[in-house]
Specification:
By secondary structure, this protein is an alpha+beta fold. Helices cover 30% and strands 25% of the residues. The protein has three helices and four strands; from the N terminus they run βαβαββα. A four-stranded mixed beta sheet has the order 2-1-3-4.
């Protein structure tokens, strides 16, 4: 089973973000299968009810990426 992760960016920050690589690294280190989709279109990101970028969506929950300072915090989201 794969964990679906969405990364919500504002359009100015979507290119070259290290977030995706960080999440992929944490998932690989913990043998978690994930799929990642990055969204930067304002209409698509608005569906999740946040204007805080970057944000992560996992298990139907939206998380402010800036508040996830440790790999352990991200791992807990990937394990949902």
């Amino acid at each position: 089973m794969s964990t679906d992760i969405k990364i919500l960016h504002s359009s100015c920050c979507a290119s070259g973000s290290p977030i995706k690589e960080r999440i992929k690294k944490i998932a690989a280190e913990n043998s978690i299968e994930i799929s990642i989709e990055e969204l930067s279109d304002i209409q698509e990101t608005a569906k999740y009810g946040t204007t805080t970028f970057p944000s992560l969506v996992a298990g139907g929950e939206v998380y402010d990426y800036r508040k996830l300072s440790t790999d352990k915090e991200i791992l807990s989201i990937l394990n949902q």
